[in-house]
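User: I'm writing a tutorial on reading structure tokens. Could you give me a worked example: one chain, its sequence, then its tokens, then a sentence or two explaining what the tokens reveal?
Assistant: Sure. Here is the example chain.
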Amino acid sequence: MDSAAKKILDKLKAKKFDPVYLLQGEETYYIDLISDYIEANALSGAEKGFNQVIVYGKDATMATILTHARRFPMMAERQVVIVREAQDITDLNKENGSKLLLDYLNRPSPTTVLVLCHKHKTLDKRRELGKKAEQLAVSATFKKPYDNQLVEFVHGYVAEKNLSIEDKAAQLLAEYVGNDLNRLANEINKVLIDHNSKDPIDANEVMAKVGISREYNIFELQRALINKDWLLAAKISNYFEANPKKNPAIPLVAFLYSFFSKLLAAHSVGDRSSSGLTAALKINPYVAKDYVNALQRYSHDKTLQNISLLRQADLKLKGVNSGSESEGQIMKELIFGLMV
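And here are its predicted structure tokens:
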């Protein structure tokens, strides 16, 4: 778990609530996790009816939000005001709205817990509000995790449920989903629903629950591309075409685009050993050898060309200049083009 999120949650679990929380950044998982915990636990069920307000930024001005925040709680120790999508507050980035919030941060109501969920970006630190807000509130900025942090996240998430997962299974989930933590948590939950044993979750269980074929999946396709194994790539391509619902093409293209984008970055790394690439690309050591092998088979120019082919395929799959080609035909043409 992110260290800043853990620090905030540990304090909340000890029933210590601060007047203002500013949760911001690209990674929305922890913003939701903390705000949901406050929503569920800051007040009792009986207190919530009169003392909990949830507003959405696009529907509110700063003056309206702060009017809620300055009210006194009714027959409760505190009240809670949660602002979802706070980045969309209509006047947040205007002088008047910024000044109102800054004034409140300097003198917050001691009986209110105000939670600002500022998603996908951060306050502009060139402005006075952006410079001072982090000092005046409990503030945390959450960035998208690097690929080499995802396995640790999977292990931690499963451990919180008093269960364990094998390294290979955790790596499989991390590779399959990528660094979208909300989606990664959802996929882990799919696996956990029917896992009744105290034995560690293994890779076979992950593949069965998440819907990954043991023989023909995106990981095997990537390895076939890396090794330029034409026969295996053709078999996987045919399987994907015959099972489009289990293997939607757009996520497959996105997965391969991510791989070749990292491979392009790998071409500029001085130390191209597994350890050198692990450090430079922020990838898991488990997959670093794939990049070492790919560097031997795909030149810098070919890697650039493949990125272009993947972009073109993505547009075709979304209906741009696709003509009468089916999804399966587009993918077969793409796979051939990536290896030729």
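What the tokens reveal: The chain has a mean pLDDT of 92. Residues 102 and 129 are 6 Å apart (CA to CA).
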